[in-house]
């Protein structure tokens, strides 16, 4: 299936899916159709056994400039909703954040330019972020009379710390690549021409590990963000028992170790 403003490609040999936001004339801003496509792509990544790792990036000068003002998903008119509906309604950015965060396979953002608003949130929902000199981050939400959305209020402080998250959220100032790397927003900072290859190499290294082990590891680390030590330990044990049920990869892991060769995993 093809998408209007997203290029989605799965390499079944490497098990890596590449998701490229593809409206460079708008710095890959998200309109209503693009939003729906992102939700569908998240589901495809999650359900496709040929996908072990997903890589998100953008075409041109921008990673994602956030919502395409005037073309983004429109909420119902306020006069048609009562207060209870307004307080419980999920925004489209919230739905997008939940869809991205629900994927239990590794996701890497190759941030090739500006990541603003919903685009910043998208990058945060990925497990790692690789950047170059062109990478820039700005929250933007406050300038639109909005709180941080799409998972930003949950993830930003856990990635850069509380006071830095407050700084970026309350001032909406722009963070360049060097500062982003220094404060932990970027996990790798490379030359622009090496951006995609660096992200792909990280993805390939993840694909050298049994995919079931990678998925349960991601689940365990994510769950630990909200759990006590004892609860995390119990969850780790349950996930460990679950991961050993993938007999093919478990046996291949043990066999390749004793035969002193590189393992060949199948995801089964």
Describe what you observe in this structure.
The protein is an alpha/beta fold and 268 residues long. The chain folds into two domains: 6-206, 2-enoyl-CoA Hydratase, Chain A, domain 1 (Alpha-Beta Complex); 211-258. It is built from eleven helices and ten strands. The strands form two sheets. Strands 1-2-3-5-7-10 form a six-stranded mixed sheet, sandwiched between helices. Strands 4-6-8-9 form a four-stranded mixed sheet. Helix 3 (92-102) packs parallel to helix 4 (118-125). The two termini are 26 Å apart. Mean pLDDT is 89; it is low at 83-88.
Which spans of ≥5 residues are poorly predicted at pLDDT below 50?
A: 83-88
Topology-level CATH name of the largest domain: 2-enoyl-CoA Hydratase, Chain A, domain 1
Report the portion of residues in β strands. Answer: 5-15%
State the total count of DSSP E strands. Answer: 10
Strand order of the largest sheet: 1-2-3-5-7-10
Distance between the termini: 26 Å
- Main beta sheet: 6 strands, mixed
Secondary-structure-derived class: alpha/beta
Give me the CATH superfamily of the largest domain.
Answer: 2-enoyl-CoA Hydratase, Chain A, domain 1
Large-scale geometry: globular
Helix amount = 40-55%
Structural domain tally: 2
Calculate Rg over CA atoms.
19 Å
What's the pLDDT, averaged over the residues? 89
Q: What letter string, H or E per element, gives the SSE order? A: EEHEEHHEEHEEHHEHEHHHH
CATH architecture descriptor name of the largest domain: Alpha-Beta Complex
Put simply, the count of helices is 11
Tell me, what is the CATH class of the largest domain?
Alpha Beta
